Amino acid sequence: MTEPPLLEVQDVHLSFGGVHALRGVSFQAHRGEILAIIGPNGAGKTSLINAVCGHYHPQRGRILFKGRDITHLRPHRIAALGIARTFQNLALFRGMSVLDNIMLGRHVKMRSGVFACALYWGLAQAEEIRHRQVVERIIDFLEIEHIRKVPAGALPYGLQKRVELGRALALEPELLLLDEPMAGMNLDEKEDMARFILDIQEEMGIGIILIEHDMGVVMDISDRVIVLDLGEKICEGRPDEVASDPRAIKAYLGEAVAQKGG
Fold first, then answer.
1. Residue 64 contacts residue 4 (beta carbons within 8 Å)
2. Exposed, middle or buried by CB within 10 Å (0-12, 13-18, 19+), for 141?
3. Domain limits, the chain
4. Domain 1-82+173-262 is of which CATH architecture?
5. Blockwise average pLDDT, block size 10, the chain, 262 residues
6. Residue 241 near residue 219, CB atoms below 8 Å
7. Which helix (H) or strand (E) holds 39?
């Protein structure tokens, strides 16, 4: 029996005044796959991610996570269900250490009351140890043990992006939304990030939705690709299919990328 989709976006419309950010977008994302969403600037990619996360609420359509309607839930409720994200622009606390930044990703998992935490009694102490163990595993996984105590703001840009990925992983999500995780990186940093994304998929079985402008990366690591243009989904398929689709070429890819993908 085929496993039901992890995420379903059904005929989603999103407008801001007279501006239509999304026009009837529908798709499914599955556990353990990398689904890339591409398109020119202003196509609606980040608006779509913000709708899934609960930062925007569509005027029409539904968004389902594991069969549950999350269309109008608040962001913290959606995060608690198992959806984590990174941001196009870094959102780290620059004065805090790498360890503490990643620990913040555990906040929706923390159950002890303020009184218990303040006095560091039994339950809170045991909970702190459990959360710290999860974070230490993520630090090892992302190969950032050597900078765990360094303030995030003192790190090179590529490592800051890796720390932000770690904070999203600290939520232990089932669905990870990556909004241009390689923007501003050099070639070596991009290769490292691509490797970590593939490892997350293969070792953790997390579903990944990836917004990325580097078409080489998209074609290399994605299982499926969706192309948006002016808020509409214009095509969807395997990377090789999308790279040769005339609609995608006209809207975004260009002949050179099409030839590379084909």
1. no
2. middle
3. 1-82+173-262, 92-171
4. 3-Layer(aba) Sandwich (3.40)
5. 86 94 97 96 94 96 98 95 88 90 81 50 66 92 96 93 95 96 92 96 96 92 96 96 90 54 44
6. no
7. none
